Predict the 3D structure of the following.
Amino acid sequence: MLLHFVTVYLLCRKIISLAYMSINMYNILIFRIYILAKEVIDMSSLRFEASRLSVRELTLAAAMTAVVFLLTFVPKIPIPLGYAHLGDAGIFLIICLVGKREGILAGCLGSMLADFLGGFALWMGPTLLIKWAMAMTFVNLSREGELGSLRSLRTYAALIAACLVMAVAYALFGALLYDSLAAGLASLPGLLLEGAVNILAFCAAAAPLSRHMGHSRQ
C-alpha cells in the first residue's frame, strides 16, 4: 500500500513538473514572438511615409480589416489536404486597389482576428509576422495602383513569391510551435495549395476589375 502511494506521489510530481516546464516554455515562446513582432512593426513603420495615417486611411483600413476577416473566416474551399480560405487574395486586391498601407494593416489585423475567433489564438503572433512579410513581398515586387497592373506579369510573379513566403513561414512556425519538423513539413503541401487557390481567386477578380478601372479612367 505504501509502495503504491509513493509511486502515485512520484508520478504526480513528475506530471506537475512537466506541466510547469511546458507552461514556462510556452510563456517564453509567446514573449519572444511578441518581441519579434514589435521589432518587425517598428521596422515596417520606417518603410511607410513619415506622415501619420489620415482619418480616411484609418477608416479604409478598418473597413478592409473586416473584409479580410470575412474572406479568411467564412469561405471553406475544399482542397485535397483540407480547406482553403480567400483572405490572402483579398489582401493582394486591397493593396492594389486601395493602398499598400491600408492593405498591410488590414491583412495583419483581419487575419489575426480570424485566428482569435477561430480558436487559434496561439497563432496570432506568427500570423502577424507572416502576413506582414507576405504583404511586403507583394508590395515590393508588384506595381500596385498602376493601370493594368492587376494583370501584369510582374504582379503574377509577386503573387507567387508572396504565397511562397506565406507557405514556408507557416510551415516553419508550425515546426516551432509543435516542436516537430515533420509536422511543419507535413503542412507545407496544403499551404502551397491554399496559396494557389488565392492566386486563382485574385486572377479571377482581376479581369473584371481591370476592365472597370480602364473604363473609369477613360
Observations:
- The first strand starts at residue 77 and ends at 79.
